[in-house]
Amino acid sequence: MRSFHCRCRRVIVCLFIGVFFPALLVSAALTSIGAQEKQTPTLKPKVAPPEIRIADTRETIPDWVARWELARVLSYTKRYGESIREYERLLREKPELSEARVEWATVLFWDGKPAEALKQLELVPPGKIPEKARILMADLYARQKKYDRAESLYRDYLKSRPDDLRVRLRLAEVLSWEKRYEPSVREYAEILKARPDDSQVRRKYGLVLMWMGRFDDAARELKKTLP
Amino acid sequence: MKKTVLILFLFVIAGITTGAYHLVNRDWVLYRQGERQFAAGNIPAAIAAYEQVRPGKTGVPGKTGVEDRLAAAYLAAGDVNRALPVLETIRRREPDNMPLATSLADAYVRSGRFAQAASLYREILKKSPEDRRARIELARVLAWEGQYDESIGEYRKMLKTTGEGP
Q1: Residues of B in contact with A16 (CB under 8 A)
Q2: What are phi and psi of A16, to 5 degrees?
Q3: What number is the ipTM of this complex?
């Protein structure tokens, strides 16, 4: 019985030494040893401001970041010439900035320089051209009567956005300009199924039917557009 | 038996001294807890600790130091509305504290108060015209405010260009 008591005491002592004392030490250490280094919280604007900021600026700001933002702001104020010059300087320094090149192309287009715009867009790897710019590229190809390239870009876009009737109309037009009337008519039919009251589209559709020699159909469609 | 009693006594002493230390240096312990939790990314726990700290106690920074950490924690938690009054209080107390002015201006940007941010960045630039970060932030907030010409002016100052010629 006595040896049992002795064993119990030993167990209690061991528990204290093995568990409670280290636990006390650890808790004291945890509360007293604080982290010395301060962290800077990441700053993200709460509101969604216009797209100007290129990078979240912390300490050093390279000139190219400021130049890019300047080019953007200049384009917003329609000072296209100055904007184009800044994009030019920026891309001379950082030719790998595909996003900036796409923006530059867009400003060139706004400034009435479609050929130069297309030239810049063609320099961007296809995977890095955003959808909107691809449509611009397709439009520019269509202007240059490179209908096959325009068609391919429109079709690619419509694969992911089949409900974009504006782009479908451009595809229908390009096909008709290529004298590929059957596929063009199919696209028009698709558009008119979704927007049967769009008289402008119906008139274009009527014209294509005329070009096909389907005068009766054309007349019927054109009549529908009259008040 | 005596040995056991002695060991138990030592443990009791250790426990009492640790407890007493926590009680006496409560603010220091809380401040350290806040720092540790902040560094570990546990921001709500850091805020809870900082909020209880009484500044100026043994080992604890003064009012500005603690409030600065509290504001940083609020910002890290994305709670700009709670950070702003804290930063504004420090700013009133320390108008020449430029890092603080920058933090406040940044917080104004985050809460969409661009006009206030612009005015503060301008103040910073008056004192340090070479502060590129303040300059670009000013250019940005001016643009977001729709003051494009002023914004362009700031960008150009930063780039030290006139915009003429290639």
Answers
A1: 7-8, 11
A2: -60, -50
A3: 0.76
